[in-house]
Specification:
Length: 305
């Protein structure tokens, strides 16, 4: 080989000779064949996974649809990783003639040193396993994790992909998921505060709201139960607040609150009960007795005009 590099004529002969191009052609053919076979294996495994879960739908042992979607994507990812790794090893061994046994033995020694720098990777994989095993959340769930809120698109061995409602795709390492808020497991609770002016009667306002609430479950499928009036929640400067709650389908508590708010607003408007507006009351200075009486009743200092 040294003589080859020291002799320019020999280099040219080697480059233009058939041996090099035959080796390159065979190598490219082998690599292409390995890649095609690996791709076929991945495609077939994905179809088999889909069929396996399709048959499970008719078996007596059932699991939730959200958990099925999670397991399907996780199995497909694992198979893809394994096949790609095996294809890489096969190319090294059959094309470039690496000694895989020596390479794996060296990798075992080097892995010990690399492991100290790959602690986060190991933590992510272990956390991902427990996320799936404990069913903390599944594909399609609406969650809040690691400061990110959105719909779970994919749960992988190392990361979880969450799609925000505004369209951003967030990739969160599984090791960073220390607390999970899952909105898709149980029904939600819509909470609506209705502001009523002091000029209106409390009982009349509550009666109107009750009549409106009874019609909502039949009109909107998001609302599961008839909204319930909790009572007067607070007394503000120019109005009092009536709180209304209702059970909704999972993840629909915000949509349910908007529906209840709209229907109550329209119903109150039809009954001539307006939504209160901020007010400023101005008292004129009066040196007479009437002015002193008004001041004592209101407890508000006079404002000169």
């Amino acid at each position: 080989m040294d003589e080859l590099f020291n002799d320019p004529k020999a280099i040219w002969t080697y480059i233009t000779g058939p041996d090099l191009w035959l080796f390159l052609g065979i190598s490219v053919l082998k690599i292409t064949s390995i890649i095609i076979i690996s791709w076929l294996i991945i495609r077939i495994s994905k179809k088999l996974t889909d069929r396996l879960f399709a048959r499970r739908a008719h078996s007596p042992i059932r699991i939730s649809e959200r958990r099925e979607n999670t397991l399907k994507k996780l199995i497909k990812n694992i198979v893809t990783y394994i096949v790609c790794f095996m294809a890489f090893i096969t190319i090294l061994e059959n094309v470039f003639e690496f000694d895989i046994k020596a390479l794996l033995a060296g990798a075992g020694v080097a892995g010990l040193a690399i492991g100290f720098g790959a602690q986060n990777l190991v933590r992510d994989i272990i956390s991902g396993f427990f996320i799936v095993f404990e069913d903390q959340f599944s594909v399609g769930d609406y969650v809040t994790v690691a400061g990110v809120e959105g719909t779970v698109e994919e749960i992988g061995l190392r990361t979880t992909k969450i799609l925000s409602w505004t369209g951003e795709l967030n990739v969160v390492p599984n090791g960073n998921i220390t607390q999970v808020t899952n909105y898709s497991v149980h029904n939600g609770l819509a909470v609506v505060d209705v502001n009523i002016p002091y000029e209106s009667d409390v009982e009349k306002a509550e009666l109107i709201i009750e009549q409106i609430a009874e019609t909502l479950p039949d009109a909107y499928e998001e609302i599961v139960t008839v909204p319930e009036i909790i009572g007067v929640q607070s007394l503000e400067t120019s109005h009092f607040v009536i709180r209304v709650i209702a059970e909704t389908l999972p993840v629909y508590q915000w949509a349910g609150a908007r529906i209840i708010r709209k229907e109550i607003k329209q119903g109150l408007y039809r009954e001539d009960i307006d939504i209160p507006s901020p007010r400023i009351v101005v008292y004129s200075r009066d040196k007479g007795q009437a002015g002193m009486i008004n001041k004592r009743k209101t407890g508000v200092d006079d404002i000169g005009t």
